[in-house]
Amino acid sequence: MQATIRWQGNVCFEAKSGTGHTVLMDGPAEHGGENRGARPMEMLLMGVGGCASFDVVHILRKARQDVTACRCELTAERAENEVPAVFTRIHLHFVVAGTNLKPNQVKRAVELSAEKYCSASIMLGRAGVEMTHSHEIEER
């Protein structure tokens, strides 16, 4: 896996993945930014949510569950008055929608992602970030 980060001036950077996708990262005005893109720590948080969501949907589809939507709402806390201001706690709340979804299958998919498959959340958990998960089902 590869990525390239290019400075765009002030505190703005363009990130390009090895697969050719680009994302703009920028800072707030008080740090010289123009708020043209996500903050790097926001990118990390979004990456965790994307990784875990991919797992949950994949596991449910493999279990032949009729998933029509999946949303992962993340909340994170960072160390206060410390440098670096690392994540100390991240909570992932999955809202899974579908037809006749089996609650035990959804619960198991979230657990498998958290405990076995999501490289991003498992890596952060091993680094000392408290990782918690919850879920709910919306019938469609």
Keywords:
single chain, 140 residues, alpha+beta, GMP Synthetase, Chain A, domain 3, 3 helices, OsmC/Ohrsf, OsmC/Ohr_fam, OsmC family protein, KH_dom-like_a/b
Summarize the structure in words.
Helix 1 (40-62) packs across helix 2 (103-117). The protein has 2 domains: 1-38; 40-139, GMP Synthetase, Chain A, domain 3 (2-Layer Sandwich), CATH 3.30.300. The termini are far apart. The longest helix has 23 residues, at 40-62. The strands form 2 sheets. A 3-stranded antiparallel β-sheet has the order 1-2-3, with no helix packed on it. A 3-stranded mixed β-sheet has the order 4-5-6, covered by helices on one side. 33% of the residues lie in helices and 38% in strands. The protein is an alpha+beta fold and 140 residues long. This is OsmC family protein.
Radius of gyration: 17 Å
General shape: globular
> What is the first-to-last residue Cα distance?
37 Å
Q: List low-confidence stretches.
A: none
The CATH topology assignment of the largest domain is GMP Synthetase, Chain A, domain 3
Number of strands: 6
What's the structural domain tally?
A: 2
Query: What portion of the residues fall into strands of 2 or more residues?
Result: 35-45%
Largest sheet: 3 strands, antiparallel
Class by SSE composition:
alpha+beta
Percent range of helical residues: 25-40%
* Spatial strand order of the main sheet: 1-2-3
